[in-house]
Amino acid sequence: VPLTNGTSPGESDVAFAQRYLADFYDLKMETIPMTKMRVNRNFMENKIQEMQQFLGLKVTGQLDTATLDMMHRPRCGVPDVYD
Amino acid sequence: FRVMQGRPVWKKHFITYRMKNYTPDMKPEDVDYAIQKAFQVWSDVTPLKFRKINTGEADIMIQFAHGAHGDYSPFDGRNGILAHAFGPGPGIGGDTHFDEAEIWTKSYKGTNLFLVAVHELGHSLGLGHSHDPKAIMFPTYSYIDLSTFRLSADDIRGIQSLYGAPEKPRPSSKPDSTDPTVCDPNMSFDAVTTVGDKIFFFKDRYFWRKTFRTLVPEFHPISSFWPSLPSGIDAAYEVTSRDSVFIFKGNKFWAIRGNEEQAGYPRGIHTLGFPPTVRKIDAAIFDKEKQKTYFFVEDKYWRFDEKRQSMEPGYPKQIAEDFPGIDSKLDAAFESFGFFYFFSGSSQFEFDPNAKKVTHVLKSNSWFNC
Fold first, then answer.
1. Distance between first and last Cα of chain B
2. How far apart are CA B304 and CA B311, in angstroms?
3. How far apart are CA A82 and CA B265, in angstroms?
4. Nearest Cα to Cα of residue B189 among B176, B199, B177
5. Which of A19, B89, B99, B297 has the fewest beta carbons under 10 Å from its own?
6. What digits encode the pLDDT tens for the residues B213-250?
7. Where is pLDDT greater, at A69 or B171?
8. What is the pLDDT at residue B170?
9. What residue of B is the nearest CA neighbor of A79?
């Protein structure tokens, strides 16, 4: 999981982010074998970048504060992207 | 903007909707009004027409639900996901669901039902989420002042890519006749102004455009010319020397030139020099000779010097004193060929500003060959 700059997200943040990216950005974590953690990490980073780009955030691929704040804003349940 | 996956659209222009239930957070009539206004936002800029039915299966079924509610997308309690909707299609297609765990309101408190409804109905009509933070179709919720809420240009481009623009009014079956509604004997107008060689008569969401040469006026939705202007305006006047028309509603005013809305508007009417006690303008007239604008509010009027761009000292004054015979509350006013025309309800007063007297009392719709 990508670490933020100097402040690492807590486990609950990471879980929340994974759920958010699965709901709205078609992140499919469960289909990637855990043994391929590095692949997992890049995949998640790509999805974070996609979300940051879509919602007008700075594209860092990191779970930084602005990204986590955006994820916690009330929103529509329709996905932002489709597979 | 994006459209929903597979670009689903309604293959018809008359679409029904039905409220399956209501939130206890708001009065049912307030819910109905919010949903009706939300549909109107989209019907203003497309050929689509929406009709509420109370029984049977509607194209768009609307409900409030808690948690899991039978569509594989359970709601998640307060905040988080506020609502969701399905793209056009049979059955659940087009349906809109609101999370009952939210606090639904008609104000800035809690979650504003109208704003979320406009967004979700965008999905019900086939729009996806937009990248544009100013678009109503941007995925996250933020409160917007309802009196100035408008669809963004991105929203309008998106929905018109699916359904096109509103249909131009067809000439009536008898081309030499006028639209019967304007000939209603009780007809009144929100505002009237000249625009070049034409006269614009504003009423609710529409306006009639009339030239002195043609008998039959054109009839258009305001939003088809100026998407972000409000409906039900209070006053309008043209400053010919600045080739601009100013539109007033409540404590704000807009400037338009042709069908372009000028940047930097709306502005507050108090920037013109009105005292805080003035909340709205009833009518306004620009006097070409004097380059002065008269603003009429209740029984008083102000005069604005268009050259100096400032309100003249010594105002307000009583309308009845300086405009003898004009003593009822005004709806609209405009100047033509040196005469002032004042509209009050279904009556119109032709006033000679030099002789300072009413020269004719007419019906408000006397400009139309009823």
1. 45
2. 4
3. 38
4. B199
5. A19
6. 666 778 888 887 888 888 899 999 999 888 899 999 99
7. A69
8. 47
9. B129
Q: Do residue A78 and residue B133 have CB atoms under 8 angstroms apart?
A: no
B-interface mutation test, from A16, A70, A76, most B Cβ less than 10 A away: A76
CA B302, CA B311: separation in Å to the nearest integer?
A: 7
Q: B292: which strand partners?
A: B287, B305
- B206-211, strands of its sheet edge to edge: B191-195, B198-203, B206-211, B218-221
Q: Can the peptide bond before residue A79 be classed as cis, meaning omega within 30 degrees of 0?
A: no
Please check whether residue B119 touches A, CB under 8 A.
Answer: yes
Nearest partner of A43 among A24, A69, A25, A16, judged by Cα: A25
pLDDT digits (tens, 9 = 90+) for B24-36: 999 998 999 999 9
Beta strand B300-305 with B292-297 is antiparallel
Q: Positive or negative CA dihedral for A65, A66, A68, A69?
A: positive
Q: Position B78: which residue type?
A: R
Contact B129 A77 (CB under 8 A): no
- Are B141 and A77 a contacting pair, CB within 8 Å? no
CA–CA distance, B93 with B98 (Å, rounded to integer): 15
B316: preceding bond cis by omega (within 30 degrees): yes
Quickly tell me which residue has 């997992």 as its tokens: A40
Contacts of A76 in chain B (CB under 8 A): 81-85, 116, 119-120, 123, 129, 139-141
Q: Is A9 exposed, middle or buried (0-12, 13-18, 19+ CB in 10 A)?
A: buried
How many Å apart are CA B246 and CA B280, to the nearest integer?
A: 14
Annotated active-site residue in B100, B120, B238, B335: B120
ipTM entry: 0.86
The pLDDT value recorded for residue A40 is 66
**B342 neighbors B351 (Cβ within 8 angstroms):** yes
CB atoms closer than 10 angstroms to residue A1: 16
What helix, strand, coil percent values describe chain A, rounded to 5? 50, 0, 45
Query: Six-digit token pair at B94?
Result: 């087009």
The model's pLDDT over B286-342, given as tens digits with 9 standing for 90+, comes to: 998 889 999 999 999 999 999 999 999 999 999 999 999 998 899 999 998 888 999
A55-73: average pLDDT: 94
Partners of B129 on chain A (C-beta within 8 Å) are 54, 76, 78, 80
Amino acid letter at B269? I
